[in-house]
Amino acid sequence: MARKFPGDDRARPKGLPDGPRGAGHPPRQGSRERGSRGSRSQSFKSDPNIVQIFGFHAAREALRASRRKVVNVYATSAAAARLEQELKSRDIEPSIVEADEISARLPPEALHQGVLVETRPLEAADITDLAPEGVVIVLDQVTDPHNVGAILRTAAAFGVTALVTTERHSPAMTGILAKAASGALEHVTIVNVVNLARAMEHLGREGFLRVGLDSEGPASLEETALQAPLALVLGAEGKGLRRLTRQNCDVLARLDMPGPIKSLNVSNACAVALTLVRGALKG
C-alpha cells in the first residue's frame, strides 16, 4: 500500500505549527507538543459538511456498509493493515499518519484507536418514509451522545428499523456518538423531526402502538399488551417524557426492577425494554 502523507487533500488544522523551525532553534514560547491536550483543544474545528467516524469498529462498519461518500481516511500503519480488505473493496488509499496527527483532528476526549474516516453526511430520512412495521425508537430530547450512541448500538442488535429524534436538543450523528454506536449508524435509519408531537401523531395514524417508558406508568411493560408496529418512546434522564409526548402515547409503561436501585440509565432501560418487547412480539 503506497504511503501517503497528510496535507495533500486537506489544509493543516488551524493552530498547529507550520513545520520545524530548524536545528538548534528553541520551541516557540508557550507551545506544546503536538497531540497534547492543549494542542488538540486549540487545533480542532468541526466542519458541518463532514461526518467524523473514529474508532476501529465504527470506521470498519462505515467502510463495509458503503452508504457514505468517503472524503478522507487517516490511519496509522497498524490500523490500515487491519482495514486493508475494507479499504481495497472501496478503492480507498488512506493517509498513513501517526496517532498524534489523528488526535489533532479530533476533540480532546476522542479515543480514535488509530483511524479516522471523514465522510459526507447521509441523506436524511423523513418520518413519512417509515413503513408501518417492526419497531422504531423515539427519543424525546435525549442529548448525551454516549447514551444515544449506546441506544443505536442496542437498536441495531435488536433489528430496530429506525430511530426518531428531534432536530434540536439532540446530539449530532458523528464523532463521539458514532464511536459509542460502534457501527450502528450504518444499519439504523435516522429520522430527524422538527416537532416530535406531530411526528408521533403521524406514527399513530400509521398504526404504530406508541409505548412511552415512564417510571410512574400505571402498568409494567411486562404486563402491557404489545403489538407491531410499535414505537418505543424514551425520555431524557431526569426530565423524562414531556407533556405533549406523554399525551401522544397510547400507553405508558414502567420497568419493574426487584433490586434496591429502581432506575436505569436511559440506554440500559432501552436494552431492557427491547428485550421485553422482542419476547412479547415473538409470543
A few lines on this structure:
The protein is of the alpha/beta class and 283 residues long. Helix content is 31%, strand content 18%.
User: Helix/strand/pairing class, anyone?
Assistant: alpha/beta
The share of residues in extended strands comes to 15-25%
| Biggest sheet architecture | 7 strands, parallel
What would CATH call the homologous superfamily of the largest domain? SPOUT methyltransferase, trefoil knot domain
Describe the structure.
It is a single chain. The protein is α/β, with parallel strands linked by helices and 283 residues long. It folds into two domains: 37-119, Ribosomal protein L30/S12 (60s Ribosomal Protein L30, Chain: A); 127-282, Alpha/beta knot (3-Layer(aba) Sandwich), CATH 3.40.1280. Helix content is 31%, strand content 18%. It is built from ten helices and eleven strands. The strands form two sheets. A seven-stranded parallel β-sheet has the order 7-6-5-10-8-11-9, sandwiched between helices. Strands 1-4-2-3 form a four-stranded mixed β-sheet. α6 packs parallel to α10. The radius of gyration is 22 Å and the shape is elongated. It starts with 36 loop residues before the first helix and ends with a helix. Residues 1-44 have low confidence and may be disordered.
Give a quick set of tags describing it.
2 domains; Alpha/beta knot; about 20% strand; elongated; 60s Ribosomal Protein L30, Chain: A; four-stranded mixed β-sheet; 11 strands; alpha/beta; disordered N terminus; 10 helices; seven-stranded parallel β-sheet; about 280 residues
